[in-house]
């Protein structure tokens, strides 16, 4: 997988202001506002910035947290996990491994009935859903 490296100016041309704020500046969309929160469509979720495959619909689950939730990425090397101590709490940031865009955070051990007990809490604006035909 080739890394995608662009300047902020190049990303600003490609992304909408909201996409840039979330993907490149580690922002967060408001809960329950993203286009994929309640989506049940079967398909592949890719990075909106670079198109890399990140998650599959068969790992998406209802967490009722306000953002799309997945219990694992489609491939372990699809995402990079980074310790995040911002906002006075310890979290683990999830980034696209190909272009280093911010996707959201992952939480472990919350008691969800999923195979991993992980909740990848991902901003809809970070994703593009490619429906299965």
TrEMBL record:
Its domain of life reads: Bacteria
Please provide the Gene Ontology terms (biological process) for this protein.
protein repair; response to oxidative stress
What reactions does this protein catalyze? L-methionyl-[protein] + [thioredoxin]-disulfide + H2O = L-methionyl-(R)-S-oxide-[protein] + [thioredoxin]-dithiol
Domain (MsrB) ranges: 8-132
Which cofactors go with this protein?
Zn(2+)
> What's its EC?
1.8.4.12
Question: What InterPro entries does the annotation carry?
Answer: Met_Sox_Rdtase_MsrB, Met_Sox_Rdtase_MsrB_dom, Mss4-like_sf
Listed A to Z, the keywords are: Metal-binding, Oxidoreductase, Zinc
Protein name (Swiss-Prot/TrEMBL): peptide-methionine (R)-S-oxide reductase
Give the originating organism.
Answer: Planotetraspora mira
């Amino acid at each position: 997988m080739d890394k995608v490296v662009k300047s902020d100016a190049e990303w600003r041309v490609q992304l909408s202001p909201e996409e840039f704020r979330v993907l490149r500046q580690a922002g967060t969309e408001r809960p329950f506002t993203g286009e994929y929160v309640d989506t049940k469509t079967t398909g592949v979720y890719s990075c909106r910035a670079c198109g890399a495959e990140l998650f599959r619909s068969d790992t998406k689950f209802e967490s009722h947290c306000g953002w799309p939730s997945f219990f694992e990425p489609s491939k372990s090397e699809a995402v990079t996990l980074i310790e995040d101590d911002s906002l006075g709490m310890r979290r683990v940031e999830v980034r696209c491994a190909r272009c280093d865009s911010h996707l959201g955070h992952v939480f472990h051990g919350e008691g969800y009935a999923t195979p991993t007990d992980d909740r990848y809490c991902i901003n809809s604006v970070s994703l593009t859903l490619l429906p299965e035909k």
